[in-house]
Amino acid sequence: MRWNGSRLDTRSMLAALVVAALGLTLGACDPAGDDDEAESDEPVVIGASLPLTGPLSVPGQGHVEGYELCVDKLNDGGGLLGREVELKTSDNRSDTETVVNQTERFIGVDDVDMLLGTFSTLLSFPSSTITEQNQMIYWEPSDSSVQSHSRDFEYNYGFTLKPIDYIGETPADAVFELAEAGDIPEAELPKSAAVIYTDDFFTNAMARGLIGGTLEVPGIDPIDFGEGYLAERDMELVFDRQIPKNFTDWTSLLNSVKGSGAEYLFALMQAPAEVDIAKAMQTVDYEPKAAFFAQGTYPEFAESVGAGAEGVIVWSTWGPDVRWEGELNGEPYSNQDFVADFKQRFDKDPNEDNAQAFAVCQAMAYAVEETETLDNGEIKEWLDERTAEDPIPTIQGDYYFDEDGLTAERDVLLLQWQDGELKHIFPPGEEYPGEAKIQYPTRG
User: How does pLDDT run across 306-316, given as a tens digit for each residue?
Assistant: First the structure.
């Protein structure tokens, strides 16, 4: 299931800000690490507050599995700096106040050496305020929002491949680039678009990048998205609708979208609304030239809607066949190594939540070994020096960061449902085996 990103409406964000402000009770402390750390018999302690229960428990469990496998592999290879690695996890119950309290405890009571991030901006936004105050790096697998990374924080690093505000650019770009490659007739490129999106943080952010507008966040300057990316691509926005939570009248909505004549549908919803949308498209016989869904990578989607899934484009940050290679314990360690080790450890196939968390832990370990220290300040300086020529190699590709701590120069993957299977269609490249031609228009 495509859970990545962040779910937080405006009122929840304001509440999280209040919680974070009230939670800054520890004061700045010295970053972990000392001159004798490589000779110590004490374990390297890593803390992670994760949503193991509550509404975010599914991706939370995926993250803890990725962290656990990474720590197992590190200890199999001799640990970090010659010391055993100990992973301490706690269940924040998908609650902002709890994640703040647990982050404070990890720093002030448990005296952890490193902090691995939680899932979602809902939880990362307030907890990263605590880590910044205490000058500890927050290695974030699942917070890629522009507003979270626009607070002038120096210790906050997001490992999602692209900010969620700009994910919509990729499916918009793809059709034009594939037309240039000869896979789509130039005359058939979409000239109009519809954007429908649920009223929550994740989908509001994706929609804002497409349709434009200004984001107001307390404590920082407004973020201007201009007229939006659709305007930059000369696609006329002919339908734009924010959908309230618990919405049910999908048939009427999709009938209105069809009536607008939109040639490209951007359906930005949280699960399981993508099933309702696909079924409603079948009911009203709406077949746009292209359809991008924010959710729908999981097999149950295609099983639920049958032919309604055909041609739907979805996004992902990872795939089991992608040929990315990182390093672990001083040795090459590829994405395929990760897949094999995960299957052996958990007796099931990994998903992208597992992979994203593993890659973040892998990056942390690589940074520690390269700098030969656990001092968060020194590691932060090293992270800031990474470039395209000298990145951090992981099972999710190479990482370096922009001035806001967001992953630089990466893009998400686009997959398309074709004959009941997900096929990689974009971007092109030798690292993506099994790449398929886009099915365009949607129904072929």
Answer: 999 999 999 99
